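User: Here's a chain of 194 residues. Predict its fold as C-alpha cells.
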Amino acid sequence: MSRAPSDTKFTDIQTRWDFFQKHHWVAPQFATSPILESWERCLRQSNPYEWLKPHVAVGTTLDSFLKRNLAATCIAEAILEDAFQFLESRRCCFLVTDETGCTMSIIGHHEMIEELRTLGIKKGAFWSEGRLGTNAINLSLHTHETVSLFSAQHFNTKLHGYSCHASPVFDEQGRARAALMLFTMASEHKDSDA
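Assistant: Prediction complete.
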C-alpha cells in the first residue's frame, strides 16, 4: 500500500521551489528535469504568486471541440467512471482533455470538482502552461509521458495544495490526441496512482 508523502518530501520540494524563485536555478541533479524546463518557461510567461484563471472555450467553440473529440471522450469517460468506483472513498476526480489541453470532461468527488471550479477549471478550460504554470496535463502532452506533480512541483502557488497524475493518449499513428488526469489534494498524493 502506497503511503502519503512525508513532511520531509513536502519540505524538500518547497525548498527547491523557493530556491528556484529566488535564484532562477536549481541543483545539478535536477537541472535536466522536464519540471525545471517548464519552470524556466513559466518564468518568462507568468507570476508564480498570481493566479490567472484559465481561458475557457464556450458556445460554438466548445461544441466544436466536444464534437471533434466525442468518440475519445466517451471511451475515456466509461473507463474513468469504472476507475472512480474503486476510488470513491478518496476525494479525487478524473479529467479528460483533448490534445490542446482543453478539458472535455470531469468525473469524480463533488468536493474536488468544486475545488477545480474555484480555480476556474471546468468543461472547456485550457491547461495552458502560460496561464496556470507547470501542470501535469500540459507537461504530459509536451513530453508524451506520464507525469506526476504534487505540491511545489507546480510553478504557481495556487496549485501547491494539489497532486496530479496525467498521461497522454495516443492514436494509431502515435500522435497525442488526449490526456487523462487524476486530481487529488497533495496530502493524499500516492506515487502508485500514476
